[in-house]
Amino acid sequence: MDDAFAPDSAAFAADPYPAYAELRARGRAHWYEPTRQWLVPHHADVSALLRDRRLGRTYLHRFTHEEFGRTPPPPEHEPFHVLNDNGLLDLEAPDHTRIRRLVSKAFTPRTVERLRPYVQELAAQLVGRLVADGGGDLIETVAEPLPVAVIAQMLGIPESDRALLRPWSADICGMYELNPAEETARRAVTASVEFSAYLRELIAERRKEPGEDLVSALIAAYDSGDRLSEQEMISTCVLLLNAGHEATVNTTGNAWWALFRNPAQLAALRADPSLLSTAVEELLRYDTPLHLFERWVLEDMEIDGVRIPRGSEVALLFGSANHDPAVFDRPEELDLARVDNPHVSLGAGIHYCLGAPLARIELAASFGELLRQAPTLRPAADPVRKKGFVIRGFDELRVEL
Predict the structure, then answer these.
(1) Angle between helices 356-373 and 145-155 (to 10 degrees)
(2) pTM of the shown model
(3) What are the domain boundaries of the chain?
(4) Residues 6 or more apart in contact with residue 206 via CB below 8 angstroms
(5) Alpha-carbon Rg of the chain, whole angstroms?
(6) Burial of 84 by CB count in 10 Å (0-12 exposed, 13-18 middle, 19+ buried)?
């Protein structure tokens, strides 16, 4: 395969969508030697494979590393893998089924709905500060602090400790990029050790004095005598923070840059804020915050006559699936009124995003407040894109009024 897919290229990272179109035109599965993965670019395949139990986020529930033809991770990376491998995102049945059932008893619709006034008030305050300052970095002042504070509030993390969370999360999430460097792994391991130690202390405190927070609810959750282990609770809390704010932060930045580049759509939204519900879904589709999601092939399979053997890894290209013209009319156009919008930005199947309802509340709140309080918001400079390709977003997006 040639250079259509070039995740290390700055030009590709800035606009991968033409390359995705080329991949879709060429076929349904493409071998990519640099990461030794099968790239899957079509919506129908991505959607189906997210639900296909012949694939898994892990293989360790069925095979050892050696049986699967894989090299175990280095021993020095163990703290990251212990943390990551005990979270819902990287587990399969029966462990995933058991833990998701227990977590769902704590992370209920009522829990999420109870946060709505807090989310709305905080969004109003953060946007108010941005307006009072006449602008600033939208990522730093609104996009980042809102979801981090909401997850911290939900977990019961004191305000004095919340500044620790974003750096830990950023360092851990560095491991989800393609072929992470050893320095990235070192930072992820350090963050895993520190974050786990912090949560272990917090859990011990909540065991002694339960509160109204999610950590207390996770401790109390049980089903037929089954409870979460301490490591499962720690991994769940880290996953809720990482997944619960990375997507929201990056969607906010990506979405506002998309709106600035589509002034007619932004004008329509400002004129009719009732478009907000469909707008959020379209902005999630148009420039999704997660462009690639990996799965291990647990049984030999074929995609369009291409044999993909057990032990392979497939890379489901969410960004490509969300721009597939077989599913979306005029996919390269931003259409905030788009109703038929089966995007895959929040996943599908058993790993569908647990925090999707909360993410939608946060996005609607911050967008609503920016539309209301900052009706003349505009970019003050070109944004600074994050390094990496898998998690797509900006480090900085400066705006003015």
Answers:
(1) 140
(2) 0.93
(3) 10-400
(4) 156, 213, 215, 216, 219
(5) 21
(6) buried
| Residue 152 binned pLDDT confidence (cut-offs 50, 70, 90) | very high
Distance (Å, whole) CA 122 – CA 351: 29
Residue partners of 21: CB distance under 8 A and separation at least 6: 323
Both tokens assigned to 11? 């030009």
The reported pLDDT for the residue numbered 223 is 63
Q: Which residue has the tokens 């400066």?
A: 398
Sheet holding 55-56, edge to edge: 30-32, 37-40, 313-316, 293-297, 55-56
Residues forming a β-bridge with 226: 223
| Cβ neighbours around 255 below 10 Å, total | 23
CB contact at 8 A, 311 and 319: no
- Residue with structure tokens 């005990």? 86
Question: Among all chains, which residue has been given the structure tokens 């301490």?
Answer: 230
Other CB atoms closer than 10 Å to residue 170's CB: what's the count?
Answer: 18
Query: Which residues, other chains included, contact 15 with Cβ-Cβ below 8 Å and sequence gap of 6+?
Result: none
**Beta strands, E only, 158-238:** 222-223, 226-227
**CA 364 to chain CA centroid, nearest Å:** 17
Give, in words, the CATH class of 10-400: mainly alpha
Confidence of residue 169 (pLDDT cuts 50, 70, 90): very high
